[in-house]
Amino acid sequence: MAVASAEHKYELITRRLDEVLGGDLIKGILAEERAPKCYWGTAPTGRPHIGYFVPLTKIADFLRAGVEVTVLLADVHAFLDNLKAPLELVAHRTKYYKHILLAVFKSLGIPTHKLRFVEGSSYQLTKEYNLDNYRLCAIVTEHDAKKAGAEVVKQVESPLLSGLLYPGMQALDEQYLGCDFQFGGVDQRKIFTFAELYLPRLGYAKRAHLMNPMVPGLGGGKMSSSDPDSKIDFLDAPEVVRRKIKKAFCEEGNAKDNGVLAFVGAVVIPISELRLERLRGNTGADADEGAEAAGDQTPFALEGAPDGTVFSVYRKEDYGGSLHYASFAQLKQDFEEKKLHPKDLKTAVADAIVRLLEPIRKAFEESAEWQEVEKLAYPDPNAKPDKKKKKVRCLSVVGAYLAYNFVDLQEKVYHPPPPGKGKNA
């Protein structure tokens, strides 16, 4: 296989992105025939949803271009983000997130041995990092810190100081993880520009920033871990997936804020394209892609579909027969022109999601460790307390009361009732 040119590698690194800041920095590294280093981070708070497929699928492109990828499990950030994760749950949720991410990467055919996983607390609690954090706090205004985290940190009426520290620490992570560019959602843009402004003021290099598009929720608007009806969990059962997709907003001919249609463009078709490219041997510098793959690795095309089909929609012959698409643009046009009915689209999307989640759910069901971590990370808020423990606690309270009143349990002592309370009252 011929060595990919710097131009081709840059195209791989930046395709399907929403925005690129500092692309010339990456071009310069590639021109020097060096391997760029990047990091993608996530704070282990709520349960990860299928919107995570967007950045995780993109990491395949980075590996194909020879990029060294670090995955940051930002446990300290999870605690600092206002009201999202109590400190005692963060450690369990960090383990849960790692299980999920490994399972998703394997389902995508991405070789996990090429990824470096780092927990934020492994370096964010060091003397050096904290001194840099204090240096940053000495030059950052409250206004800039609040503005930077406006779209990422949970906004409350009376914000805590912890939320103001969040953007600065995310900027410092670029230095301490030794990356050339940071990758994240377009909702991180203000934090990225904050880092570009303030890291040089500490004497550190300015990094590039790559942003993937955000997938709308099933009801329109942002897909959120805190709103179960707006998203699909990685571990949702097939019947749950189909029920949520059936309820999702998908007005005929309306492609705006359509989470069902957007998911096809942002997740299903890119994964199909990756699989087609892999079948043709086009994996660039990542010769190991697909070796650890779990689950069905065929594109989302029906049997008998034309070559190059990346998404098919089954329809009975009475309704014109199945539809096959080689691009998202074709699919979107058909939907806007009402040639594709929402019901048919929903059925095809639900089938695709069930296929995507099957190997992830299987990995969970086969791992007793993961199942135990899940219970600890997300305890059932409606679970009834253990009655046995409750009885023991009651007995201990009674025992303490009796001991306090110096009652001899071996000697029956008669205590007359108050006036008017006896049996013959």
TrEMBL record:
**GO terms of molecular function:** ATP binding; tyrosine-tRNA ligase activity
Q: Which SUPFAM superfamilies would you find in this protein's record?
A: Nucleotidylyl transferase (SSF52374)
Q: Which Pfam families match?
A: tRNA-synt_1b
Q: Give the CDD domains listed for this entry.
A: TyrRS_core
Its EC number(s): 6.1.1.1
Location, primary (coarse class): cytoplasm
Which GO annotations describe the biological process of this protein?
Answer: tyrosyl-tRNA aminoacylation
For this chain, the family text in UniProt reads: Belongs to the class-I aminoacyl-tRNA synthetase family.
**Signal peptide limits:** none
Lineage of the organism: Eukaryota, Fungi, Dikarya, Basidiomycota, Agaricomycotina
- Where in or outside the cell? Cytoplasm
Q: What keywords are annotated for this sequence in UniProt?
A: Aminoacyl-tRNA synthetase, ATP-binding, Cytoplasm, Ligase, Nucleotide-binding, Protein biosynthesis
According to its UniProt record, this protein's enzyme class is: ligase
* A cellular component term, taken from the record's GO annotations: cytoplasm
- Domain of life of the native organism: Eukaryota
Q: What is this protein called?
A: Tyrosine--tRNA ligase
Catalyses: tRNA(Tyr) + L-tyrosine + ATP = L-tyrosyl-tRNA(Tyr) + AMP + diphosphate + H(+)
Q: Which organism is it from?
A: Postia placenta MAD-698-R-SB12
